[in-house]
Amino acid sequence: MSILYRENNLVLIDHRKFISNIFKGVINKKDCLKEVNYTIASKLFSIKNYKKNKNNKRSRESNRIIEEASMVKQMYNEILQKIPLGVKLSINDQYNLLETSFVRDLSRAYFESTVFNHLGLSGGNNSDIPLLCKVEGEYFLIPDNSRFFCGCINEQCKKLKGNKYDIVIADPPWWNKYIRRLKGANDKLSYSMMYNEDIASIPVKELFSSNCLVAVWCTNAPSNITAVKNIIFPEWGVNYVTTWYWLKVNIDLDPLCEFGAGFEKQPYERVIIGKVGEVENIPCDLLLMSVPSALHSHKPPLLDLLKPCMNVEEVKVLELFARYLLPKTTSVGYEPLKWQHISLYEEIE
After folding, report:
1. How far is it, in rounded angstroms, from Cα 277 to Cα 238?
2. How far apart are the first and last CA of the chain?
3. CB burial of residue 92 (10 Å; 0-12, 13-18, 19+)
4. Number of other CB atoms surrounding residue 322 within 10 Å
5. Does pLDDT of 225 surpass 90?
6. How confident is the model at residue 185 (pLDDT cuts 50, 70, 90)?
7. φ/ψ (deg, to 5) at 63
């Protein structure tokens, strides 16, 4: 489990701990006699700095955003008072390794060194143990009982027709002016952004089980939030349930930036939760807090929070726009192997 502390709808998780648990006893397919424990590089979680906001723009959406930010801040203050001191100190001790500027440089170097053309590639691991596999000349860690399909989301979803999934997670590449500017400077740092209508047209509806939990990572842009609730979910046949908030904190558990007003940058992102059919016991307005990975789009794991909502023995999970793999999960996108490259990992005892 990645959960370090939980009380009701307030949760503190350790992303790296989750990864460490996944890759215990990895078998190298070339040397089946040797088992190795791996985890992702601890330096990627050495996030220290506290940055103040500078954007003071206001809009007609300001009141709603201020109200929401105040709610998240209140939840943060509540969980901060309850987390045991030993848990707080363990996070600082574990990740107090580098200055944040060096972490950014390290993250950028990893991003550029893990650009692969795996278009059309598919594979997986049908065993109950994680494997170290060679794929087109490079080594990748493949979790147990996982599958991956590299390519256009629409095409890959069509290939999966006939499969049914109990949990579907999506991290769409929302249209973003900042990413668009990066594309002009460095093609390696860009990805194919999609308009809201294009996301809504993804043929994922036929892949939902009769009772399915759907989680969509979304930016704080009001247009995208509205699109998920009023365009994407209705087109997919999904009913909106609630919104979860991922609060990004440094190793001292301080928010990465101040809680803003108007359209200022916020220290949190959101996961919009919906369902198909009957799915009970979904936590409302959940606050998920963690030190973020410095890797781009390396979101924290949600499986420990989503699976308990499903009343099935073997939960089948599908992740769209994946950049990494999860156990017992089918991952689809242009880069599902990106953050599985062995260069990002270190051996542990």
Report:
1. 9
2. 18
3. middle
4. 28
5. yes
6. very low
7. -60, -45
Domains, the chain, with CATH or none = 3-348 (3.40.50.150)
Q: What is the pLDDT of residues 193-214, one digit of tens each?
A: 899 999 999 999 999 999 999 9
Residue 74 CA, chain-centre distance (Å), reads 24
Cβ proximity of 276 and 210 under 8 Å? yes
Structure tokens at 21: 């648990």
CB 23 within 8 A of CB 37: yes
- If pLDDT is split at 50, 70 and 90, which confidence band does 98 have? confident
Q: What sign results for the dihedral spanned by CA atoms 344, 51, 12, 321?
A: negative
The pLDDT > 70 percentage for the chain reads 88
Instruction: Name which of 23-27, 62-66, 106-110, 152-156 the model is least confident about.
Output: 62-66
Would you state the pLDDT for residue 2?
86
- Measured CA to CA, the distance from residue 347 to residue 87 in angstroms comes to 24
Task: List Cα–Cα distances, 301 to 25, 83, 100, 316, in angstroms.
Answer: 20, 20, 23, 15
Beta strands in the chain (DSSP E): 3-7, 10-13, 26-28, 31-40, 122-125, 131-135, 138-142, 146-150, 165-170, 208-218, 239-248, 268-276, 287-290, 317-320, 329-333, 345-348
